[in-house]
Request: fold
Amino acid sequence: MSVGSLRLRLLAAGVLSILLALGIAAFGLTELFKRHVERRVDAELTVYLNQLAAGLTRKPSGELGLAHRPSDPRFEEPLSGLYWQIEGGSPADDLRSRSLWDTVLSLPPETNVADVSRRYEIVGPQNAQLYLLQRYIELPDNIGGSKVRIAVAVDSREVGQSVRSFASELAPFLLIIGALLVAASWIQVSVGLRPLSTIRGRLSSIRSGKQQRLGGAFPKEVRPLAEEIDALLDEREKAIEKARGRAADLAHGLKTPLQVLNGEVTRLEEKGETGIASDISYLVNLMRRHIDREIARARISYANSNASTNVRTSTEQIIRVVEKTPRGQSLSWTIDAPPDLEARIDAVDLAESLGNLLDNAARHAKEKVSVKARAEMQSISISIIDDGPGIEKEHQAAMLIRGQRLDTHVGGAGLGLAIVTDIVEAWGGSLTIENGTVGLIATLRLPAATNDSGA
Reply:
């Protein structure tokens, strides 16, 4: 796919949208999981904090003590990452978990006694970041009535590790979902652009003559485009018909004045004005050649997939006509063509093309002219071979130029090969001229007939 491909643009936009959506989803899910972990940590620390508050008591010596400690073994393991600390009114009332070892936490100050716990982030043992839950309470009178701060903390890395583990486990699922969404986007783009591919295929068929119009079997979003193209083709066809009609009318309108000029040429010759008569005759013939060419071009049929002409039958008909000419009677004619060979061309157009080529071959052949036709893949080649003198290689291309003569010493319109080129190109074919081992070979290549009329 090229950079300017609509398919590539849509797919790139889809992929970018999917990546953006997956990125937002990954971030959102990770944040939600982080909040969930934090709530679980809050709940766990709150349980420990409540246990510490409920276990506070006074020793016989008057110091603050704990009747029972939280049961989690990490509180007894030095630097385990789970700690608690109680600060009373005096240093003698300060208590800490064994996990703190010789470290004292710098608890945030509290000004008001409250039943709710507050969250903080502080620096703990070995400069580790701690997630701390703290409550500032007032003890009942039976255990001194003093105010104490109770704090329970956990290493923040445990929360981060849980979030990272979740993210690493989430990533493969998001990648799978992303791949499935990209595949779905590719399918969606392919299905969505299929009508445009259909239009392109039908336009190609219209250009090759396999069908005449796009038709209306398209989704409603694309149907207006197809209708506009069909309308444009209708207008083009009408314009071409008008242009062909005007060209034919002009050509036919000029033929009568040329006939009058021919009469004047005859009268000038009778009066002995041969020089002037020759000049006028040359100009008249030149104009007639161009008029004949325009009439032939105006007569060229529209290429369509339904046209079908039997090559052998058409060739035999043309040869029967050429054989009756003085030159044709002296030649030997052979045809080598399968009887069922069908070309996609109008019968009149094929007759016009073969007539020009066979007439040209008859005028240059010495003894014989042969026609060979063969099927080649989806095309048909028709070769007209004469045993004449041929033509220099550097002049072969010039023979197909409008108004050029194959041989200035032999009569002829000088436009026959150009007319043949116009006809076969209108049907998607071609004409080539080349020297054979003896004489000249003119080869027509035409599309093979098909029964597909298009939709």
Remarks:
- The radius of gyration is 50 Å.
- Residues 209-299 form one domain.
